[in-house]
Write the structure tokens for this entry.
Amino acid sequence: MTMLKQFSAVVLGLGNIGYRYDKQGGDRITTHAKAFSMHSGFELVAGVDTSPEACADFHEAYQLPTYTNLERLFSEQQVDVIALAVPTCEHFSFFQKAMAFRPKAILCEKPIASNSQQAQAMLSQAQHESVFLALNYIRPYEPATAAMIERIRQHAFGVIQKGCVRYVKGLANNASHYINLLLHLWGLPDAVELISAGKPGLEDPEPDFVLRWGENRIYFLALDDHYYSVSEFELWGTAGAVYYRNMGREIVYADVAENSAFSGYKALQLQHTEATDLMRYQWYSADYLFKQLVSQVPDYRSAEMACETLIVVEKILAQLQETL
């Protein structure tokens, strides 16, 4: 399929998510650089990083110009899209630097900023200056996951009673993916309750906590990634269940059936397993961004929900502070 229009794109921050994750090759598309280079709606034109070593490595991989600052980049090129892949603590300052050059869009890594005040300021500025701001909470962009979200919204599993998320490596960096996904389903939770503070001394804490929407409670449990990595959730409804497994690479659906072993009882019966395309997640993020740019009527809900996600994270952090 031939795309109608092509937009120039740069990656700001040439670390893992910027381009390094895909250095091992294969069909995976897990970085901004590879996504822009593989999507026919974009032309990857440059990489930007303050590290000369990172710039040299990127240039060797893509044979494209590199810059150590945005000022020099924009003095030489007109750029439509900037992928903001610098550390979270630098999102706000680099967002402001990027906005000075009025790109058409900024795709920002998660979490959106260091705090919700910065996040709201970024969203407000982008809306005021008609620059599309999207957040790289990747799961809702992936087709199988998006279909799962819609099935839950349509009560395919009845009323959700409870759920459980298991995560590693940080509340803001990893648990927030699932907080964001749940916001797509039910909006901001009615209550946020800390269960356990988790390991002390972490820069990004790993607490156990529960989010509540009415009587529906979703429990978040942090595991120790020293033993293995885990990223999954389960939701149990009155008419079935859904299991998001294997780091999000597969979705297992179950419905309710008569229990073949015990008369008069019902049981969950596995219906089918569906593979996701999560190892190409960045392509879907780029595709979402492309469609928004082509429409010329961008939807800022992605950024709005990123702000809401950060508000939930801050509520948990505030409760953590009270335990100290």
Remarks:
- The longest helix spans residues 301-323.
- The two ends are 57 Å apart (CA to CA).
- The chain has a mean pLDDT of 95.
